[in-house]
Design goal:
Blueprint (H helix, E strand, L loop, with lengths): L3 H5 L38 E4 L5 E4 L3 E4 L7 E5 L5 E8 L1 E8 L5 E6 L2 E7 L8 E9 L5 E11 L6 E3 L1 E5 L4 H10 L2 H7 L4 E7 L6 E4 L4 E5 L8 E2 L2 E2 L2 E5 L5 E3 L10 E4 L5 E4 L23 E4 L29 E4 L5 E4 L17 E5 L12 E2 L1 H5 L8 E4 L5 E5 L2 E6 L4 E4 L15 E5 L11 E6 L21 E6 L2 H6 L2 E4 L8 E4 L5 E4 L2 E8 L9 E6 L4 E3 L9 E2 L14 E5 L5 E5 L16 E6 L9 E4 L3 E2 L4 E7 L7 E7 L2 E3 L2 E3 L2 E5 L1 E4 L4 E5 L10 E9 L2 E2 L3 E5 L9 H10 L21
Parallel strand pairs: 45-55
Antiparallel strand pairs: 1-12, 2-5, 3-4, 4-11, 5-10, 6-9, 6-12, 7-8, 7-10, 13-43, 14-15, 14-48, 15-18, 16-17, 18-19, 20-21, 21-22, 23-24, 24-25, 25-26, 27-28, 28-29, 29-30, 31-32, 32-33, 33-34, 35-36, 36-39, 37-38, 39-40, 41-42, 42-43, 44-46, 46-52, 47-50, 47-53, 48-49, 51-52, 53-54, 53-55
InterPro entries: Gal_Oxase/kelch_b-propeller, Gal_Oxidase_central_sf, Glyoxal_oxidase_N, GO-like_E_set, Ig-like_fold, Ig_E-set
Protein name: Copper radical oxidase
Keywords: Signal
């Protein structure tokens, strides 16, 4: 049996040689020698003031101390009670850096004379932690401010240090333009009586990847960079975000999850697959790496309670890894509840090419299928779709086969027979996968038409993927095209049906709603995905002209009337490369991220940590409620659920949804299946029929909704299927371990050709 423990195995200590971890774009001034990977970092557009700056004023007894591990090799320290330091600055944010160990105590922090909090500087550490972020605040109104720190002593220690202050601000023309637009936001929100938008919370880490893991929490995963959220003395690159309180818990990630894919398995375990090399002990943002992320399979076991103290990522590259390196891979759950890992690149670069292409699939857990014995299986489709074929759009279909779209092409792949059925090309030369990134969705499945699948792919770009980066401009228009196809024999013969969004979009997110509509949000009107590659970069962004107003697509309306932005609020936050959006169990849409930068930046289109919440109009309506439901919906079974329904409602639907794993505009495994039901709606007891098998809904976690007269309930988490672990072939598993080595591609990156303009 494939239990939690066979997923995790036994943690075996191992050591790795340290090698150059990146061949791509490197920030000026990045260190090439070993140095502490500490929270201290000065993002482009920010400014640092060390402890000796004339703008830093001390009161009481302070001693200057010297250390090679301090900013500018010195810091100030005081053990005197009530000794204070003041620093006046102009900006929107402030960070205080100093040291932590068991000799330090507490400090009171004030801004503009207002008490903010007591900061615990004491740390039970064997050695002093240097250049630590002791306090930060990023949401100040732009202007002049004064930070004051007072030594409050403490029962366990009495020292307080000042190493440096970093001032952050949004002081560039592009952001000022966005702020001017934002001045109209409040009025727009008042007028937009149907939809509302609010900004609340900070993600703490870049929201490159997003998955809703429970009624109370979302998982956020980033690349290794100098995020403002810290853990164990260094910046974090993963976090759990509380959907209710907006508290953020850092995760102790080990390898670089830079542009990884992910999926939930049959038993509810989430896997995060691939990435890039990373180091946590070098300050070069391009060269972070104790553990190589290229072959990483990170395990996140089910964590369904509001208390997430014991929830974290697990890695053991000795026992759990992919057979080949994967960067920009798509991962989906298939009909037996295992994961299919699709494509990617063998190492970091930008546009894919034949040198670095990984034109294969593999499975987790590994399968001995088609003579592979757990090793990768080549797909001709992933060769034919070069160059722009990273992060392909993929969905498991009701036949058990898999729909895959990349570049200008699409196919249906029968993984059980290893056969490809090529589909008509995406119309009008539009490319839809990275870096010409579009977004796709499998439209809701219903038993009323025997679960006939239909796909919708929107946005992207018609830019030729053989052009060099220096020949592409950030101002070249994206595509407004949406292509829709019914995946039946008749539908395929009819081909793609083309519609157009109100605005072109690249890097949009298509979010399935429980009403059956599709929300399209985020993205830009021009350029392509990535950073640091094209002409006319804005900051480092390859794209420009952010699209700030969402659009709703109603698939059941007549062609020509399906798109609407009526009642939609307009944001003042650009959401470009590395942005995400997902439906939440509550029914609103969480929008986060945007970081078209190698590392955290305060310049144009800088690193965005603010979180927005887009609320549909039915959140304010009288909503149906699921009072009680079984925890498991076994295939082909019936179950009784207790509900509270509005009086005299006859239009009732029941649906199970997978919110998906979201990254780079790919909403992997996203799905909505309507269920048959019977009973008397007036009594509140409905008898529902579970999906017939794993083809219709791949076994794993889902969110049950009641939709009454177009108004959905909150989603209730259930397990669809038996909840067991996916099948394991121990021979195939052993074959992967014997045929690959721990981080075997570490050496191949040093000095190797990344294939053109290197980037994220």
């Amino acid at each position: 049996m494939f239990s939690r423990y066979s997923l995790l195995y036994i943690c075996i200590p191992f050591a790795l040689a340290r090698e150059s971890a990146w061949n791509g774009l490197v920030l000026p001034g990045s260190q090439k020698t070993n140095a502490l990977f500490t929270p201290y970092y000065v993002p482009p557009g920010a400014k640092s003031y060390d402890s000796s700056s004339p703008f830093v004023l001390y009161s009481g007894e302070w001693t200057q101390r010297f250390s090679s591990n301090s900013v500018r090799r010195s810091f100030r320290s005081s053990s005197q009670a009530n000794a204070s330091v003041s620093f006046s600055f102009t900006g929107t944010g402030i960070e205080w850096f100093g040291n932590r160990d068991d000799r330090h105590g507490t400090a009171e922090v004030y801004i503009d004379g207002k008490y903010m909090k007591n900061v615990e500087v004491w740390k039970d550490a064997k050695k002093t932690l240097r250049q630590q972020r002791l306090y930060s605040k990023y949401d100040l109104p732009f202007g002049s401010h004064t930070l004051k720190i007072v030594n409050a002593g403490g029962a366990r220690g009495h020292l307080v240090d000042v190493d440096a202050f970093v001032v952050t601000h949004s002081g560039n023309a592009r952001v000022h333009t966005a702020v001017r637009v934002g001045q109209h936001l409040e009025k727009r929100l008042v007028e937009a009586t149907q939809w509302t938008l609010r900004q609340e919370g900070s993600s703490g880490v870049g929201a490159m990847q997003l998955a809703i893991i429970s009624p109370s929490h979302a998982l956020l995963v980033d690349k290794v960079e100098h995020n403002p959220l810290d853990i164990n003395g260094h910046p974090a690159w993963g976090a759990l975000y509380n959907l209710n309180t907006h508290a953020v818990k850092p995760l102790d990630m080990q390898s670089n999850s830079f542009c990884a894919g992910g999926a939930f398995l049959r038993n509810g375990t989430l896997i995060n697959v691939g990435g890039n090399p990373v180091v946590e002990d070098r300050t070069s943002s391009a060269d972070f790496g104790d553990l190589d992320g290229l072959q990483a399979i990170r395990i996140f076991n089910p964590c369904n309670t509001p208390n997430v103290d014991g929830c974290d990522m697990y890695e053991n590259h000795d026992r759990i890894r992919t057979a080949s390196p994967r960067w920009y891979d798509t991962v989906i759950r298939i009909n037996d509840g295992s994961a299919m890992v699709i494509g990617g690149s063998k190492k970091g670069g930008w546009m894919n090419n034949a040198t670095v292409n990984n034109p294969t699939i593999e499975y987790y857990p590994p399968k001995d299928i088609h003579g592979s014995n757990g090793l990768p299986i080549q797909l001709p489709f992933l060769i034919d779709t070069l160059n722009a074929n990273l992060f392909p759009i993929a969905f498991s279909l009701p036949s058990g086969a898999v729909f895959i779209a990349a570049n200008q092409d699409a196919m249906i792949y029968d993984w059980e027979t290893d056969t490809e059925q090529r589909l008509p090309k995406i119309p009008n030369g539009v490319r839809i996968s990275y870096p010409m990134t579009g977004t796709g969705v499998l439209l809701p499945l219903t038993p009323d038409n025997d679960y006939t699948p239909e796909v919708l792919i929107c946005g992207g770009s018609a830019i030729d993927d053989t052009r060099a980066g220096y020949d592409i401009s950030s101002q070249e228009p994206a595509s407004s095209q949406c292509s829709r196809m019914v995946l039946s024999d008749e539908g395929i013969q009819s081909g793609w049906q083309v519609e157009n969004m109100p605005q072109p979009r690249i890097m949009a997110d298509a979010v399935l709603l429980p009403t059956g509509d599709v929300l399209i949000v985020n993205g830009a009107e021009s350029g392509i995905a990535g950073y640091g590659n094209v002409r006319g970069q804005v900051g480092a962004s390859n794209a420009d002209h952010p699209v700030l107003t969402p659009v709703l697509y109603s698939p059941l309306k007549p062609s020509g009337s399906r798109f609407s932005s009526d009642g939609m609020p307009t944001s003042d936050i650009p959401r470009l490369y590395h942005s995400v959006a997902s439906l939440t169990p509550r029914g609103d849409i969480m929008i986060a991220g945007s970081n078209p930068n190698l590392d955290r930046s305060e310049e144009a289109y800088g690193t965005e940590y603010r979180v927005e919440w887009l609320s549909p109009p039915w959140l304010q309506a009288a909503r149906p409620e699921i009072v009680k439901t079984p925890l498991h919906l076994r295939f082909g079974s019936t179950a009784t659920i207790q509900t509270k329904l509005p009086a005299d409602v006859t239009d009732i639907k029941v649906a199970i949804m997978d919110f998906g794993f979201v990254t780079h505009s790919v909403h992997a495994s996203s799905r909505m299946v309507y269920l048959r039901w019977s009973g008397d709606g007036s009594s509140g007891n409905l008898r529902i029929e579970a999906p017939p098998d794993g083809n219709i809904y791949p076994p794993g976690p889902g969110w049950l909704h009641i939709i009454a007269a177009g108004v959905p309930s909150k989603g209730v988490k259930v397990m669809v299927g038996d909840g067991d672990s996916p099948p394991v072939d121990q021979g195939a598993l052993q074959s992967v371990l014997e045929s690959s080595a721990v981080d075997q591609y570490e050496l191949s990156r040093d000095g190797a050709d990344g294939g053109g303009d290197d980037e994220s």
